[in-house]
Amino acid sequence: MPTDPRAAHTAAIDQVWRLLDAGAQAVIVNSPPGAGKSTLVRATARRMAGSHGQIPIITQTNEQADDLTRDLLEDLRDSPIRAGRLHADKYTPPVGVTASTDIDELNECDIVVAPAAKWGFVRADHRWELGIVDEAYQVSSVDLAKFAARFDALLLVGDPGQLSPFTTADEGAIRSTGSWPLETAAGTVLGTYPDTPVVPLPVSWRLPPSGAGIVSDAFYSRAFTAGSDHGERGLRLPLGAIRDSVDEVLRVAERYGWCLAQLPDAQLPRTDPQAVATIANIAHRLLSSKARIQDGKELRNLYPRDIAIGVTHRDQQALVRAAADTVCESLDLAPGSIVVDTANKLQGRQFEVVIAWHPLSGRRDASAFHLEAGRLCVLASRHRQACIVVTRDGVRQQLDAYPHTEPVWIGAATPEVDGWEANHRFLDGLNQFAVSVDA
Amino acid sequence: MSLDVLLGLTAVANRRAVPRASQCHVHLSGRPFVVVGYHVPGDPGSPLGILCGDRRDQPRVIAAGEPRDYDERWRTLTEFALNLNGYLGRYAMPTPPSRQGRSPARARPVIPQLVVPNADTAQWLCQELGLLLRYLQPERDPRISPALPVAGAHLSFFDQQRVPGASLVLAMTEVLAQHWKTGQLPSMDSNLASQLAWIRRPDTILEAENALPAGPVPDPEWERKTYTRSTKVFNQLRGVAGRPADAVREASDTVWEALEPAWKAVWESLDAVDELPEAEHVDERARGDEMQWHRHAERVRGNRAYFRRRPRQLQVFRYLNRLERLTGNLDRQMALDDPQIMARHVASGDALSGTVVKVLPEGTGRQGRRQPRPIMHIRPDLPFARPLGTHLWLHCAVETSRAGNPVRPTVELEVTGLDADGIVELTVVSNAIKREHHRRLPLPDTRQVFAPFEPPTFRPDAIPDVLPWTHREPEAD
């Protein structure tokens, strides 16, 4: 394998295209965070549009479909290839996009983008040579079953480390049937055809080297590296004395790209007010300390929109948003300038600096919901420069003390990465960057 | 904070259960078939003893004199099966479906109802015994009564109907937990005796915690000492000609003594929920149960009640869809019926409860639409933190539709503003834009709840008839 990241990336993409040209029925691309997944989807659609007829792209949500269409139109500005958006009756697509609720009205388009739910309702006599599934690890087996018959071959592109499909129904009732309809689309295809080629994208262009190392170790079974070199990117702070622990947090984040800001051990409800205050303090200090970000040769100011705060629950989100808005107000910024959202919503987005509220912080019970490695992985892999994880001390003891009481189900596939292990490895990685914060 | 945590702490402080609901959210048949029973630990196919029946003062006592003996085992199971089949037989003939929805005073839905003390008993009877009995072949083995596979099919049907909102099977600990919050750990709520004591007789909680279990697994000490004594008696007497009934009597008495408290507790917990007024949507859900039951009875009559050992992929997909739909429906209907349950959604911040400050039926006039959208200003009871663009629904009073049926319209609203004083601005999105519908808007100074519950839409699920090439059936077992 070539050691130059760009060459390695290109080689992986060439391999995907060779497989498709050779008539593979299914190809899976495992993409770590920020490895150019969307770019691959768009480039493949563009390349195949001529030779394989109309190319449908299947996304998970309407927002993803809109984003993808917008980027495609940007790519195709000087090209004869046309892209269109298929949507449901009740949905209003963005202006300036060729869009319709009826696939027959999009015959002119070489590429058609729509969410999985919509492809399921396209009349069954429509067939395509090749379909591209974006976010193939978020599309469930049920959703795949709804549209798969319309495609002769599928390219499934996704990030295996992210949150898996979930249900509002009682999981035990479904599991006891002996099969799991919420298996990922990629996993389903692999189960049916174990020989399906899996091409990993080897390079994360988003994560800095510090980030890629720890995230790859903790959450991925196939290792990846960062596309940038050490020191090429980072948070840059003006010189100054370290007055308190928050300053120290920023210094550590500047120096290493990570910081584990630890509050004293305590068991608290999930709306831990000190954690909220600490997160707000860090955000305030980041914005008021004239921090800058370096990106190769470019050095620019850190803006509020470069910062995201990631949480686990919606009540946490409400509290942190209120606190973040107070911060914005004190700095004469519009409320909402800093993005505050749950892991589910941050999936697929990127920011310069991320403040993550550890899902297990201060909890008495580490349930399966919190042990799901995907949630932590999403929070830890949104940043381009630095990630500050805020947590109560004692997460490790909690993991150790928590008994495995989850039932074992017949027919359930073992996860590629065990949530309990991943949590431990992540903390192992971050331990060296720990800073105690006073409550 | 979650309202449930507060209720739990209140219950601990008062040492008495606190109501979680102000209405009864399950359908209660007037004549339920109650079952409490024990099986040999580790062998769900061998009952030790069962009390069952629809007569509170006269349960049928079925006891196995020697559960390790095959003949005794089939005799016990057959007796239970005959009782169950007899009860269900009374519901099997379809009452001619009176044109639904036409007459306002429809009769209550009539469904058979299996009531058990706890979820484990429900699982034992419906899933495990159902699976064991439904494949039995009386034509191959003379010891097998034809009643057994029929009972197996019925039990398997009941197993499939253990879904959110259905009332065909009631596990009383689950029903009680739905309506009351005790101060015990959730896992201790699976003990019906102590749960009931928290609700009805707090001074007996300690006693209740030490009572014999309500099944399906007996207390080991009881089994070793008391039950073994009765099997000895049975083994001595069974050889004596003409006294088979005497042989079992000792076992019957032992079983009766051990299970009678559980039998009484089940009926008493039915009383407890029955004291609450029935919630509005219960009838509608029970009608669904009624339909499912008659569909099953029809299949049994036509000898078509076949249940796969392992469902096929497409069946699982449909099952998932159904469960998700039922879960959402139940959540929504319970909250709309019962202010005490809606309060949980208000406390979690999903619903907006508050006083209407101002109503502008013609909007602000700025929007430049021909038909302006009405706008309301609400002063929330709790700070409202959902983002702008959040959709909420106002469930209006009952109206009469053009066809003369009672309907409950829902007005869809969007959060369009939030000022510094915390006043929330809501703009109507649908169902109250036309002038003739403005009467659906609330009056100023009234208190209203705007809930995150979209009315259910009926759309096909797009699950195909054939499994596509990407999927395969799980390997046959």
Note the topology:
The complex is a heterodimer of chains A (439) and B (477).
Chain A: H1 5-21, E1 26-30, H2 37-51, E2 55-59, H3 62-75, E3 83-86, E4 99-100, E5 111-115, H4 116-119, E6 128-134, H5 141-147, E7 151-158, H6 171-175, H7 185-192, E8 198-200, E9 203-204, H8 209-219, E10 225-226, E11 233-236, H9 245-256, E12 258-263, H10 273-288, E13 292-295, E14 298-301, E15 307-311, H11 314-330, E16 339-342, H12 343-346, E17 351-357, H13 368-371, H14 373-380, E18 383-392, H15 395-401, H16 419-430, E19 434-436
Parallel strand pairs in A: 1-7, 1-8, 2-5, 2-6, 3-4, 3-5, 6-7, 9-10, 12-18, 12-19, 15-16, 15-17, 17-18
Antiparallel strand pairs in A: 11-13, 13-14
Helix pairs in contact in A: 5-7, 8-14, 8-16, 9-10, 10-11
Chain B: H1 3-14, E1 18-19, E2 33-40, E3 43-53, E4 60-63, H2 70-92, E5 114-116, H3 119-134, H4 147-160, E6 169-171, H5 172-179, E7 180-181, H6 192-200, H7 205-209, H8 220-237, H9 244-274, H10 282-301, H11 313-337, H12 339-347, E8 352-360, E9 375-380, E10 391-395, E11 399-400, E12 406-407, E13 410-418, E14 424-430, E15 447-450
Parallel strand pairs in B: 2-5, 5-6
Antiparallel strand pairs in B: 1-7, 2-3, 3-4, 8-9, 8-15, 9-14, 10-13, 11-12, 13-14
Helix pairs in contact in B: 2-4, 3-4, 5-9, 6-9, 8-9, 11-12
Most residues in contact, chain pair and counts:
A-B, 40 and 37 residues
Helices and strands of chain A: which structural class?
alpha/beta
How would you name the oligomeric state of the polypeptide chains in this document? heterodimer
DSSP strand count of chain B: 15
Structural class of chain B: alpha+beta
Major sheet size, sense and barrel closure of chain A: 8 strands, parallel
Shape of chain B: elongated
Task: Note the beta-strand portion of chain A.
Answer: 15-25%
Strand proportion of chain B: 15-25%
Mean pLDDT score of chain A:
88
What is the gyration radius of chain A calculated from CA atoms? Answer: 22 Å
Number of helices of chain A: 16
Using the alpha-carbon principal axes, give the shape of chain A: globular
Measure the end-to-end span of chain B: 47 Å
